[in-house]
Structures are given as C-alpha cells and as structure tokens.
Amino acid sequence: NAGVIQTPRHKVTGKGQEATLWCEPISGHSAVFWYRQTIVQGLEFLTYFRNQAPIDDSGMPKERFSAQMPNQSHSTLKIQSTQPQDSAVYLCASSLGGSAETLYFGSGTRLTVL
Amino acid sequence: QQQVRQSSQSLTVWEGETAILNCSYENSAFDYFPWYQQFPGEGPALLIAIRSVSDKKEDGRFTIFFNKREKNLSLHIKDSQPGDSATYFCAASASSGSWQLIFGSGTQLTVMP
Fold first, then answer.
1. Contact between residue B88 and residue B47 where contact means Cβ atoms under 8 Å apart
2. Do B43 and A55 touch (CB under 8 A)?
3. I need a labelling partner for A88 at 20 to 30 A (CA). Which of A7, A33, A70, A113 fits?
4. Which residues from chain A sit within 8 angstroms of residue B39, using beta carbons?
5. Residue B24 belongs to a domain with what CATH number?
6. What fold does the segment set A5-113 form as a domain?
7. CA distances (Å), B52 to each of A25, B4, B25, B67, in order?
8. Pairing status of strand B10-14 against strand B107-112
C-alpha cells in the first residue's frame, strides 16, 4: 500500500497560469478530501468527495478553484489564473468509511506562484 | 474566530521529559478530537484520538487528557525522544458534519538530545 499519492510534489507557475494538482487515494477508500496548508492560515478544508460524488465544497474559493473526481482512483484540483496568494501546500487525504475520523494524507503538492 | 486553538506555536523539551501540548475549542458540538503529527515534507498522520465521552486516552507514550466542561484537552508525550520532534495539530469534528475536521494552528515540538 503506497498510501495517498500526490503529484507533482512541487509546482511553480507564473501569475495568471493554470495549475492542476493530482491525487490518487488509497485503493478502497470511499472519501477524498482536499486541504490547503499555509503558515498563516494553517490547515484549511477545501472540498470533500464521497464515492466520487462532490459532497461539500464550502472551503473552495468560488471563482478560480475547481475539483473533480472522475473515477475512484484519482481526483484533481484545478486552479485557474493562479495568484501569488494561492501559494501553499495542497494536501489530499482519503478515508475508508467516508468520515474524517481517520484521514490518510499524501505528502502534498507545494505550489509556488511567482 | 478560531474554533480550535493551540496556545503554543512552539515547545522545546529535553529528551526524557514529558511534553505537554494544549488545545481548546469553542463549539460544544465537537465530539471527536484527533491529534495529527506532521514531519517536514510529509502530510499529517493520525497519532491518537479521543471522543468526548472519555476523559483520557492512552497509547504507548502518548496520552490525551480531555476536559469537556472546560472545553480543553492536552496531549502528553512521555519520555520524549528527538524523533518526536514534529508539528502536532489538534483537530475537532462534530458527528453532525463528520467530514469537516477543524484543525488548530499546530505546535512545533523540538526535543533536545
């Protein structure tokens, strides 16, 4: 079991460019979560999928962020027109039963927007 | 308004001492409190968790003490080791919205050899 896999580990984009982050949850886990981690804001919930269906995107900035889970083996987080304030570590996590009781996090994607 | 608050940004102890990390919360609906441990370059990993029906949870050198009336809890790390040096996050969730885990800002623990 390789755990939650996130790619790329690091991504550098120019202001205004698009960034797509990938997550492969642990096989058999029914829930996928995306969090954003910064020094200032800490760990912020972004969005949650259960059995591939979007359940809660209340943490997602509405205009430029979107997330999808086209199949049970991967999820993507897309940021359009990236801004310097989007620079953060984006963490994906999965859980077996759909709740947040035991989250298994990936190592994250460090996004730097120049 | 921080729903989950960790009072110390950083804590330094000597090897062999007991490290005590504190956490408090606002929302009375919270009933599940995990602690996550994060090493640099890695994602957080669940260390130990407690439900509000208990006042203590022990797992090896790690113990959570929980005070429901005061809305606070603490993580005690007995016989601290340099390998315990990491950032520790207190978190909370409520049964009603059980996918929403609210994290504290973290305490960076350094264990000096």
1. yes
2. no
3. A70
4. none
5. 2.60.40.10
6. Immunoglobulin-like (2.60.40)
7. 29, 15, 12, 8
8. parallel
Cβ of B103 within 8 Å of Cβ of A4? The answer is no
CA B12 distance to own-chain centroid: 16
Note the pLDDT tens digit of each residue in A26-40: 999 999 999 999 998
- Residue A42, classed as helix, strand or coil, is strand
Per the CB < 8 Å rule, is B103 touching A43?
A: yes
Give the pLDDT mean for A47-51. 95
Domain with B21, as residue range(s), is 4-112
Distance CA A46, CA A93 (A): 11
B85 touches chain A (CB under 8 A): no
Taking alpha carbons only, the member of A52, A78, A75, A74 closest to residue A63 is A78
Cis peptide leading into residue B34 (ω within 30°): no
CB contact under 8 A, A42 and B100: no
Alpha carbon of residue B33 to chain centroid: 8
Nearest CA in chain A to B101: A100
The residue of A43, A46, A99 whose CB has the most chain B CBs within 10 angstroms, and thus the best one to mutate to test that interface, is A43
Query: Residue B56 — φ and ψ, nearest 5°?
Result: -155, 140
